[in-house]
Amino acid sequence: MARKIFTGTILSLLCVLLCHPGGAEAAKTLQFASYFPTAAKQSQLLEEFCKEVEERTNGEIKINFYGGGSLLGDDKVYDGVTEGMADIGFSHIEYTRGRFPVTELLDLPLGYPSAWVATHVVNDFFDKYEPKEWDKSHVLWLNTSPVNSIITRDTRVEKLEDMQDLSLRGPGIIGEVVKALGASPKPVPLVETYDAISRGVVDGSMTPIETLFSFRLAEAISYVTNCWQASNVYTFYVIMNKNTWDGLSAEHQNIFTEISEEYIDKAAEVWNEVDVKGYKQGKEEGVEFINLSAEEMAKWEEAVQPVIDEKVEELVKDGFSEDEVKDMMDYVRGRTEYWTEKQIEKGIKSPTGPEEMVIN
What is the secondary structure of 198-213 as a DSSP string? Predict the structure, then answer.
């Protein structure tokens, strides 16, 4: 009799599993790869995202977070995710230059006043144009770094002529902007920038103000020149493996989408906060922050225009019409104005941007 009851129980359990295949998702565990140091506030945000997913799926999906490049290095994240070495990944598009030609428009010196504004703009851009270059992955959300500034050890940069003969850390698109402004770019890794400035290998760097704290650059430099109207950002991404996404139930996909939309604003706030922290650290270390006059700033904007023109020409050669590219550029500028007004309305302060939003 006991054996019959036991056998019946087993058969009932098998029936439940066969009739409810969704039960297979109960034990789903995903791997999230990021190159950012695990102690960084940005990594803390990503780990918070992982916990949020687990909570809202009632534990049916768990995400193991691997920071500091322990699973995939900075330039390996995109391929690693699309090839299945990780299910989710975080990096930025400059590590795979040329792979995202349309999205690279967003990294041009287009006058973003802050990370908060730029983050909202790049997500609006993605939603509107849906660049096909991302088709091998599922994009959860995008965000950007804060705007780059000129930071120097000994040279006080307050006019374009002061950039002449300077050597500044500036890889990739930053290097192109540095060169357009008259200085010599050096592809120094950010983790080596402190030593490079201290030893005089470079005179400074074109980098966000947040690095004054996060990479201790406030200890190595004396001046920061705000030039956001002629500067740029890096576009970061959080992507999921396409097969992993397709393997989720519709309910779980909706949960991921819902949380990701919330994290656009959270990411914008975090990147803005770290920039504010860098500014405060600079002030504590006696760093002088220099703002350019409107007349001087116009010269800087004119100087970097060839960088923008060259990218436009590249896209036209790739098959886009000039009108299509112009439409994308106009859209970015229009959304930048919109989100700048929103930041001012919300009273969110930044180290860079129009006077109404800048920290006193």
Answer: HTTSSSEEEEETTHHH
Backbone angles phi, psi at 140, to 5 degrees: -85, -50
Question: Looking at residue 309, what DSSP letter applies?
Answer: H
221, amino acid identity: I
78: Cα within 13 Å, side-chain hemisphere: 19
Dump pLDDT digits (tens) for 111-144: 999 999 999 999 999 999 999 999 999 999 999 9
Q: How far is CA 97 from the centre of its chain?
A: 14
Q: What pLDDT score does 27 carry?
A: 65
DSSP E strands in the chain: the ranges are: 28-34, 61-66, 88-92, 137-144, 148-152, 167-169, 184-186, 204-208, 223-226, 235-241, 288-291
Tokens of 188: 């120094």
In the chain, the amino acid numbered 57 is T
Q: pLDDT (tens digit, 9 = 90+) per residue, 169-195?
A: 998 899 999 999 999 999 998 889 999
Helix axis angle, 250-284 to 115-129, nearest 10°: 150
Mean pLDDT across 96-114 = 96
Give Cβ neighbours of residue 27 (< 8 Å, ≥ 6 apart).
none
At residue 3, does pLDDT exceed 60? no
Q: Please calculate the CA angle 248-65-25 and round it to the nearest 5 degrees.
A: 25
Least Cα distance to 184 among 199, 201, 162, 169 occurs for 169
Q: Closest Cα to residue 352, out of 193, 149, 60? A: 149
DSSP β-bridge partners for residue 237: 91, 142
pLDDT above 90 covers a percentage of the chain that reads 87
| C-beta neighbour count of 59 within 10 angstroms | 10
Distance of CA 176 to the CA centre of its chain: 19
